[in-house]
Amino acid sequence: MRADARRNYERIVATARQVFFENGVDAPLDDIVKRAGVGPGTLYRHFPHREALIEAVYRSEIEEVADQSQALADALPPLEALREWIRDLVNFQTDRAGLTAAIKAVIDQDSETFQYCKHKLRDAAWSLLEPAQAVGAVRSDLEPIDLMRLSHGIGAAARYADEESRGRMISILLEGLKA
Fold first, then answer.
1. Does the structure show a pLDDT above 90 at 11?
2. Are residues 42 and 75 in the same domain?
3. Domain span at residue 165?
4. Which of 67, 84, 130, 155 has the most other CB atoms within 10 Å of its CB?
C-alpha cells in the first residue's frame, strides 16, 4: 500500500473507532468520511462494506491491547508486566464493553478476523505468562486462555462497579495468579 493510502486507511480506522465508540457500529458512514477528511470513494476503496470497516476497527483495538504486552515485557520484571497487562486488559474490556459487544455481534466467530484476534491476544498473554511462570512468580498450571477468561469476567463485572471496587476485583484476580 502506498504511504498516502496507508495514512488514509489508518485515519479512517481511527475515526471509525471513535465514531463507533460514541454512536455505535450503526453510525452513518458519512459521519466517518467527514470526520476523517476523506471522500466516500476513499472509504469504499478500503472498506467495500460496513462489516469490513467494523472488522478493521476490531483488529486495531485488539492489536493495540496485544502490542502493549511487548512494551510491558520490555519495561518491567515478568510478574509486574503480567499484572499491568491484566489491569490494562480488564480496563479495556470495561471501558470498551459496548463497542466490543457491538463489534462481536457483527463478526462471525469463525471468521478469519475473529480467529486472528483471538490468537493475537493468546500470544500476547503467553508472552507475559511464560516468563512469569519461569521465575516461579505465578502458578505453573495457568494457560493464556485462563487469563483471557478471568480478565473478561472481571471486565464484565467491573462495568457495574465503582473505581474502588474495580481495583479490588483486579487485586483479587492478581493474587489468585501467584504460585
1. yes
2. no
3. 54-177
4. 155
